Structures are given as C-alpha cells and as structure tokens.
Amino acid sequence: MANVIRLRKGLDIHLQGQAEETKLNLKSNGHYALVPDDFEGVVPKVVVREGDMVKAGDALFVNKAYPEVRFASPVSGKVTAVERGERRKVLCIKVDADAQQEYVDFGKKNVQEMDGKAVIDALLEAGLFGYINQLPYAVSTNPSVLPKSIFVSALRDKPLAGRFEYEIEGQEDDFVTGLTALSKIAKTHLGLGIQPDLQAALQQRQVERVAEVNIFDGKCPAGNVGVQVNHVDPVNKGEVVWTIGDPTVVLFIGRLFNSGKVDLRRTVALCGSEVKKPCYVDMLVGEELSTLLSNSYDADHSVRIINGNVLTGRITTKDGYLGAYTSEITVIPEGDDNNEMLGWIMPRFGQFSVSRSYFSWLFGKKKYALDARVKGGERHMIMSGEYDRVLPMDIYGEYLIKAIIAGDIDKMEQLGIYEVAPEDFALAEFVDSSKLELQRIVREGLNNLRKENA
Fold first, then answer.
1. Can you give the pLDDT at residue 1?
2. Residue 12 contacts by C-beta under 8 Å, 6 or more apart in sequence?
3. Which distant-in-sequence residues (6+ apart) come within 8 Å of 364 by Cβ?
4. Strands 188-192 and 212-217, bridge-based pairing
5. Does the pLDDT at position 223 exceed 70?
6. Contact call for residues 270 and 19 (beta carbons, < 8 A)
7. Strand, helix or coil at 372?
8. How many CA atoms lie within 13 A of 98 on its CB side?
C-alpha cells in the first residue's frame, strides 16, 4: 500500500510549448561526446586516446578519487578528440559512431539471485555506477560507503518536463529490474506523483515487493528527490543516502541486467514556446543536438537553448551534446531584443508574477511564453519569507543561504545543509526579489563543506 504525502508549499509555472506525445524519428549525425561536468563531484581521468576504437560500454574516463567508478561510452566508434579547457580541465571526450554498433557483452544476470555487492560490482564494471548520486553534498556517490537507503523519484514536475509515464511505456520490466537491483543494496524508496497509468503498470509487476512506494501530492518541487528524502527519511550528519532524481537511470540499470549491454537511450522532450512542433525524440546520452535543433525553431530572433528544464538546465547551443540526466531540450526567447514601451509601468497581461504585480493572475492557469530576462539586478537580501513559500522542506531556506554566504559551517550544519541539493532552491531563485544565484551559492557551500569534512 503506497503512502500518500501531501505538500502544501511549492509553485507550478505553466509555460507554452509542452511536448505532444508523438515521437520524431531522428537520424543521428554520428557525433557524440561524454561531458564530465554532467557528473557533479567527479574529477575525471581520461583512459582513452585520440584514435582509439571503443565499443558501447567501454570506459572513456574514470573518477580520479575512485578509479573503480568508470563512465561508459554511449556508442561504439572512434575517439576523435579529448577537449580540454583552462588548466587542462577535461571538457568532453568525443566519439564518432560506427555505422554498425558493437557492444561490450557484460552478460545477462538474474538480479533475484544477486546480493548488494554483486550489483555494485556489475554497475562499476559497466560504467553506470557514476549515474547514482548521494546526499549529503549532492554529488556522484562513493561506492565504498554503503547508504542507509536509496531514493528514486519518478515524478517530473518542473516546467515543460517530459512525462516519464510516456517514456516508460513498454519498458516497465526494465524499470522494475532496475529497482530490484537497487533494493539488493539497501532499502529503496520510489517516489511517484498522481500518475494513475504509471501506478497501475507498476502495481501489475508488484513493485511494492522491492521498493516502498510514496505518492507525493503537491506542486513543484515535489518531484525533487531531496524533497522526498526530507519527508521520508531525512539525512543527518554522518549518514549517507543514495539518490536517483532521474528515473531513466533506473532504466539504464534494468537494461544492463536484462540484456547484458549498456544502453543509454532515453526519451527527450523537445519543448518551449519557440519550438515549432514540440514533441518527443529518442536519443542517446551525449548525442549532438544539431540534428534535433536544425529546423525546430525560427532563427530570425534571439533564443536561449537549454540542456534541461528552465529552472535547473544549462545554457547550450546547437553544437552542444545531450546531458547525462537531460530529459528536456528547451527553447525559449532570450529577451535581449525585446523593447517594451514604458517598461515596468505597463500592466503586463502576458507576464507571470508570483506577487501579483501584474494583472495576469486574473486569468487563472494561463500558459506563458516567458523569456530569459532576469528583470532586475542583484540587491541586498530581504528576509521576506519568499523562499519558504516554495520550499516544501523542514528547513529555513533564507537563514541557510545567509549562513552559506557567511561561510559559517556550524550554522550551515544546524540549518540542514546535509539534506539539500542546488535544485531544491531553483524555485526560490525564480521568485527571489533579490535576484541572487541561489543554486550557485548552495553548490559552492556544499563543495566547501565537503572539503572541510574530507
């Protein structure tokens, strides 16, 4: 029997350009790249050279701190470049795909007969373990420290988020296999929303036998895995929880055990108010975006292409690559070519406002075509309770941000920094009248705390 947890705080932002449940048949141009920055906390050590031939599942780089944590190539082909930036930082490893794909055969496995160590060893060997993150610090996890529990969120509720119910169709068995494998390591919690089709499909496969199911009834960010941990099994100092905020990773794991191959295929939503025909497309992690974006929007005016959703995604270009955890490619107006008569004094019926500064709130759940303008400059932090209204966690968000800025480690720990990830403050950043980069502040605070505790 699933537990129902109702959240009162949060904010749903209704945007134009939701992907329709139709799939675009995309022919790849054969260019792929794995980006180490997609895996937070990983210092990469490249294990291939330009000109090397690799199979899908071969390691391209490893985590320098834990060399047993490998990161697999999504395709077979030729390594064409290892791009580096300042101070020789590894930016990406590029691979040109073969016409006929070859896979490393890791062998099919019956997860029911495996123990936790065997599951971890299989994930390490196949280069998939690095996709699992942890709290505290919200980084790629350390395989030598076992967690007290594992949390998986299958609820995507960010603006324009791709529906996981659509992606999982026909792959339910792989998902349950992935959950079963995780349950061999530690008690596993699965977070769902009010998703009747997905709930029914998983109940048919008796998912309750391998995971505790929690239904989160509330607004965004109810789907954040950090929010779910906070309400089910909070993290205290000295404890570790493994988290999978992207449910497609569970499909990766399930496919590995069911087929014996690394299959990093995922269903991505091409969305946003600037997209001509919002839809879904099947892509591999690291696939170049140029083919997808070539004719998808009007190039006559300035747009922002986001690798991910509008709250937590990264700015990219047509020459970018699909991120490891990316379930949406979003295209919205940049706004730098928008000249408004009278500026802020206009009533702005087409603009969204949390504080009802505009009259648009009179139109109910209207969908907006918002641009990327910040509409204001950074200013002193005002203790107004803005964060608390959109942060459904048992922490004082404003006080925690102040403690991070001040570098007060004791105060950070007392205020619950071990429980949070930068994405938990994405909505607070959106509503913040002080225009502070809260996600960056939280990430810097977590990094500093991790160094202090190392």
1. 58
2. 157, 159, 219, 220
3. none
4. parallel
5. yes
6. yes
7. coil
8. 15
402 close to 436: Cβ distance less than 8 angstroms: no
What is the DSSP pairing of strand 31-34 with strand 59-63?
A: unpaired
pLDDT of the residue at 374: 84
Q: Give how far Cα 405 sits from Cα of 163, 390, 392, 433, Å.
A: 36, 21, 22, 17
Which DSSP string do the residues of 315-328 spell out, in sequence order? EE-TT-B--TT--E
What is the DSSP secondary-structure string of 120-184?
A: HHHHHHHT-GGG-EEETTTEEPPTTS--SEEEEE----STTPPPHHHHTTT-HHHHHHHHHHHHT
**Burial of 4 per CB tally in 10 Å (0-12, 13-18, 19+):** exposed
For the segment 28-52, what is each residue's pLDDT rounded down to a tens digit? Answer: 999 999 999 999 999 999 999 999 9
Q: Over pLDDT 90: what percentage of the chain?
A: 84
Whether the ω angle into residue 67 lies within 30 degrees of 0, i.e. cis, is no
- Among 379, 378, 353, 386, CA closest to 368: 353
Q: Is pLDDT larger for residue 352 or for residue 5?
A: 5
**How far, in Å, CA of 311 to CA of 423, rounded?**
8
Cα–Cα distance measured from residue 398 to residue 381, given in angstroms and rounded to the nearest whole number? 9
Give the DSSP H or E segment for 215.
strand 212-217
- Which residue intervals of 10-93 are DSSP H helices? none
Each residue of 277-315: b (16+ CB within 10 Å) or e? ebbbbebbbbbbbebbbeebbeeeeebbbbbbbbbbbee
CB 62 within 8 A of CB 72: no
Measured distance CA(164)–CA(171) in Å, rounded:
11
Query: Six-digit token pair at 77?
Result: 């082909």
Neighbours of 190 (CB within 10 A): 28
**Mean pLDDT across the stretch 235-264?**
97
Tokens of 247: 């449910």
The band of 192, judged by pLDDT with boundaries at 50, 70 and 90, is very high
Q: Please tell me the distance from the alpha carbon of residue 91 to that of residue 345, in angstroms, as a whole number.
A: 44
The DSSP annotation for 412-438 comes to: HHHTTGGG--GGGGHHHHHH-TT---H
Distance from C-alpha of 127 to C-alpha of 269, rounded to nearest angstrom: 25
Q: How far is CA 234 from the centre of its chain?
A: 20
Helix, coil or strand: residue 116: helix
Partnered with residue 280 across adjacent β-strands are 23, 269
Q: Note the residue count of the chain.
A: 454
Q: With 90 as the cut, is the pLDDT of residue 299 above it?
A: no
